[in-house]
Amino acid sequence: MLRLLVCVSGGGTNLQAILDAIDSGKITNAAVETVISNNAGAYALERARARRIETLCISPKDYASRSDFEAALCGAAEKRNPDLIVLAGFLVKVPERMIRAFEGRIINIHPSLIPAFCGVGYYGLKVHEAALARGVKITGATVHYVDAGMDTGPILLQKAVEVKPGDTPQILQRRVMEEAEWQILPQAIDGIANGRL
Ligand code: GAR
Fold first, then answer.
1. Is the overall model pTM greater than 0.85, yes or no?
2. For ligand 1, is residue 139 a contact (CB within 6 Å)?
3. What are the pLDDT digits (tens) for 65-94?
4. Structural domain boundaries of the chain?
5. What's domain 2-193's superfamily in CATH?
């Protein structure tokens, strides 16, 4: 059984997709044991609490320095020692200590076809704003392993999504979530849990 720690910052629709995929059997041999948010107001925490999953809020606001915050985050992860850490809309740069401690055991979902529209400053809606500004006709999502860089780790899965005339960043974000993110993130977890990835 692959024990998962899921890190979130916002709405948690990707967390929900993971929980639903476990319920429906699309993900087997895996369980979400803990959800950590850097944001106390994240609706993702409600989704986890509704399932009686352990939740933790570790917010930079509650620590005197960035290094104290990072130590708390790493300490919480190391204490639980999950088999896999899933960044599901986690808008915090993962501390080096955590990357070293969990080398090859952290994956991230990014809402574009990496290497397009990724790296520093590209997160959430900004990714879709940039894709529309550039006028691409195809975008999508990527699941990748996390290394010390920003969106630079080895790619596990990608799925393309069409950009349609009249798309706003919000409309495109929703289509990328529905058609790509909520599919390939559960697929990646199932693949890892069952030794295929
Ligand atoms: C998702 O679109 C995810 O791909 C993105 O944040 C959103 C979180 O939504 N992540 C990044 O941009 C990471 N660079 P959610 O909270 O509803 O899952």
1. yes
2. no
3. 999 999 999 999 999 999 999 999 999 999
4. 2-193
5. Formyl transferase, N-terminal domain (3.40.50.170)
